[in-house]
Amino acid sequence: MGGQVSASNSFSRLRCRNANEDWMSALCPRLWDVPLHHLSIPGSHDTMTYCLNKKSPISHEESRLLQLLNKAFP
Question: What Gene3D superfamilies does its record include (predicted)?
Protein backbone atom coordinates (compact mmCIF):
# COMPACT_ATOMS: atom_id res chain seq x y z
CA MET A 1 0.00 0.00 0.00
CA GLY A 2 1.44 3.43 0.89
CA GLY A 3 1.39 4.66 -2.71
CA GLN A 4 3.30 1.70 -4.13
CA VAL A 5 1.84 -0.13 -7.09
CA SER A 6 3.06 -3.54 -8.18
CA ALA A 7 4.01 -4.08 -11.80
CA SER A 8 1.20 -6.57 -12.33
CA ASN A 9 -1.38 -4.22 -10.82
CA SER A 10 -0.32 -1.28 -13.00
CA PHE A 11 -0.39 -3.51 -16.11
CA SER A 12 -3.92 -4.60 -15.22
CA ARG A 13 -5.03 -0.97 -14.93
CA LEU A 14 -3.47 -0.06 -18.27
CA ARG A 15 -5.10 -2.99 -20.03
CA CYS A 16 -8.51 -2.08 -18.61
CA ARG A 17 -8.16 1.60 -19.49
CA ASN A 18 -7.04 0.84 -23.05
CA ALA A 19 -9.90 -1.60 -23.62
CA ASN A 20 -12.45 1.23 -23.74
CA GLU A 21 -10.40 4.15 -24.98
CA ASP A 22 -12.19 4.19 -28.35
CA TRP A 23 -15.71 3.30 -27.18
CA MET A 24 -17.23 6.05 -29.31
CA SER A 25 -16.08 4.33 -32.50
CA ALA A 26 -18.38 1.41 -31.62
CA LEU A 27 -21.51 3.60 -31.41
CA CYS A 28 -24.43 2.74 -33.64
CA PRO A 29 -24.29 4.96 -36.77
CA ARG A 30 -27.67 6.50 -35.82
CA LEU A 31 -25.94 8.10 -32.81
CA TRP A 32 -22.97 9.61 -34.63
CA ASP A 33 -24.63 13.00 -35.06
CA VAL A 34 -26.24 13.13 -31.60
CA PRO A 35 -24.42 15.60 -29.32
CA LEU A 36 -22.59 13.82 -26.51
CA HIS A 37 -24.51 15.73 -23.84
CA HIS A 38 -27.76 14.23 -25.21
CA LEU A 39 -26.56 10.66 -24.65
CA SER A 40 -27.16 8.70 -21.46
CA ILE A 41 -23.96 6.76 -21.01
CA PRO A 42 -24.60 3.85 -18.63
CA GLY A 43 -22.05 3.38 -15.93
CA SER A 44 -20.02 6.48 -16.72
CA HIS A 45 -18.12 7.41 -13.58
CA ASP A 46 -20.37 5.17 -11.50
CA THR A 47 -23.26 7.61 -11.94
CA MET A 48 -26.14 5.16 -11.87
CA THR A 49 -27.28 6.35 -15.31
CA TYR A 50 -28.55 2.92 -16.23
CA CYS A 51 -32.03 4.08 -15.16
CA LEU A 52 -31.89 7.79 -16.01
CA ASN A 53 -35.18 9.22 -17.30
CA LYS A 54 -37.38 12.32 -16.95
CA LYS A 55 -38.72 11.12 -13.61
CA SER A 56 -35.27 10.59 -12.08
CA PRO A 57 -34.78 12.66 -8.93
CA ILE A 58 -32.50 15.68 -8.74
CA SER A 59 -29.35 14.90 -6.78
CA HIS A 60 -29.09 16.37 -3.30
CA GLU A 61 -25.67 17.66 -4.40
CA GLU A 62 -27.23 19.98 -7.00
CA SER A 63 -27.79 23.65 -6.26
CA ARG A 64 -30.66 24.66 -4.00
CA LEU A 65 -32.18 26.65 -6.86
CA LEU A 66 -32.31 23.57 -9.08
CA GLN A 67 -33.91 21.55 -6.28
CA LEU A 68 -36.55 24.27 -5.73
CA LEU A 69 -37.29 24.46 -9.45
CA ASN A 70 -37.71 20.70 -9.51
CA LYS A 71 -40.33 20.96 -6.76
CA ALA A 72 -42.12 23.85 -8.47
CA PHE A 73 -42.10 22.24 -11.94
CA PRO A 74 -42.07 18.45 -11.45
Answer: Phosphatidylinositol (PI) phosphodiesterase
